[in-house]
Write a structure and sequence with these properties.
Structural class of chain B: mainly alpha
Radius of gyration of chain B: 22 Å
Number of strands of chain B: 2
Distance between the termini of chain B: 75 Å
Helix content of chain B: 55-70%
Strand content of chain A: 25-35%
Structural class of chain A: alpha+beta
Largest sheet of chain B: 2 strands, antiparallel
CATH superfamily of the largest domain in chain B: Cytochrome c-like domain
Shape of chain A: globular
Number of helices of chain A: 5
Radius of gyration of chain A: 20 Å
CATH class of the largest domain in chain B: Mainly Alpha
Strand content of chain B: under 5%
Number of domains of chain A: 1
CATH architecture of the largest domain in chain B: Orthogonal Bundle
Largest sheet of chain A: 5 strands, mixed
CATH superfamily of chain A: Glutaredoxin
Oligomer: heterodimer
Strand order of the largest sheet of chain B: 1-2
Number of strands of chain A: 11
CATH class of chain A: Alpha Beta
Largest interface: A-B, 17 and 14 residues
Order of helices and strands of chain B: HHHEEHH
């Protein structure tokens, strides 16, 4: 192949390459049979995060209604976490500062240590981070429900007496869209990964 | 007379040599980073910030932190064994556990000296012998 032909390939690869402005939808699609005008058709629906219900640092109930028609960023953490959590919160603060005045964005932080992380503990933690409770909910509740939710988010969270603080969890930030579909995973301990999150929130905000 | 002529001939080379030594000295000093810097960034910066600024009132700042002598003396122990009690820094109480780090006495001394230079405006504070002595007193 001549060099000239190679140059022709470059614009072609842009045409057929994946669209950089469209974020993927994570999770398995489910097949459903629809009955339209007496005709059976098979359709696939996207994976949607399940309903949930927890209380936040102000003892308010937070559930799927709280994030209805909102883009939300979730994380799993615990207040006494000595390892990756402070770094995660420093990075989540960047998201918070960027969107604190945007009513379409919510931040949900689920504690994976609900026995120790009471409402009062979460309130104290919120005060330490100097953030507003209406924008950044720190959530506690039934332990199994939280661990099940982590599974639905397709991230790991588990108790481990050998780990610092007694728990292991992923440092992921999970981006979900207004239909509660997972649209991105980011390493909450890495600045450049969180920059990607900020960029992709912008893409999601423009999505119709 | 002959020696004088030889010295005159060699003088420019001597001057050039001295200049080269100065320049090399400057370059190497500028490019070699502090031995504690990489340790700081891999072990400490995630909670205390790249510039020692801390995270709000969650984790304390190191930059211009007022470290009373007792706290300074505990540094080696905190780095090795972690720390789990409230601490007052620049008038604010911080209460977030610190995790232990696997560093030997030389790495620990380097990282403390790095902080001395970067955050506390001291050239060199301590050495590895000091670290070993302090480790004997850890509770």
């Amino acid at each position: 192949m001549s060099a000239k032909n190679l140059f022709l390939l470059i614009p072609l690869s842009f045409l057929f390459g994946c669209n950089p402005n469209k974020l993927p939808v994570y999770g398995n699609k489910t097949a459903i049979t629809k009955n339209e005008n007496g005709k059976e058709t098979i359709d696939s629906i996207d994976y949607v995060l399940p309903n949930f219900a927890f209380v936040d640092q102000d003892s308010n109930l937070v559930n799927q209604e709280t994030v209805a028609s909102k883009i939300f960023i979730s994380e799993f953490f615990f207040t006494s976490c000595p390892s990756i959590c402070p770094k995660m919160q420093a990075q989540m603060l960047r998201v918070y500062e960027n969107y604190r005045n945007n009513p379409d964005i919510q931040i949900l932080a689920f504690t994976i240590d609900p026995e120790r992380d009471t409402v009062a503990k979460l309130k104290a933690y919120e005060k330490k981070l100097e953030v507003e409770s209406s924008k950044w909910h720190f959530l506690t509740g039934n332990k199994d429900s939280i661990y099940n939710l982590a599974e639905s988010f397709l991230v790991s969270a588990a108790e481990d007496p050998d780990a610092p603080g007694g728990h292991v969890h992923s440092g992921n930030f999970i981006l979900a869209d207004k239909q509660r579909r997972i649209r991105g995973y980011y390493d909450g301990t890495k600045e450049e990964s969180v920059q990607k999150l900020l960029d992709e929130i912008e893409i999601l905000l423009k999505e119709k | 007379m002959k020696l004088n002529k030889l010295l005159r001939l060699l003088a420019p080379f001597a001057i050039i040599g001295i200049i080269i030594v100065f320049v090399l000295n400057f370059i190497t000093h500028a490019s070699i980073q502090h031995p504690g810097k990489s340790t700081y960034h891999s072990k400490c910066a995630q909670c205390h910030g790249d510039n020692g600024e801390g995270i709000k009132t969650l984790t304390p700042p190191l930059f211009k932190a007022d470290l009373p002598i007792q706290q300074f003396d505990s540094l080696a122990c905190w780095i090795k064994y972690g720390m789990n009690h409230p601490i007052k820094v620049n008038g604010i109480v911080y209460d977030q556990p610190m995790y232990p780090n696997e560093l030997d006495e030389i790495q620990t001394a380097n990282v403390i000296n790095f902080m001395c230079q970067e955050f506390w405006e001291k050239d060199t504070c301590i050495n590895s012998i000091w670290v070993k002595e302090k480790w004997k007193t850890c509770l």
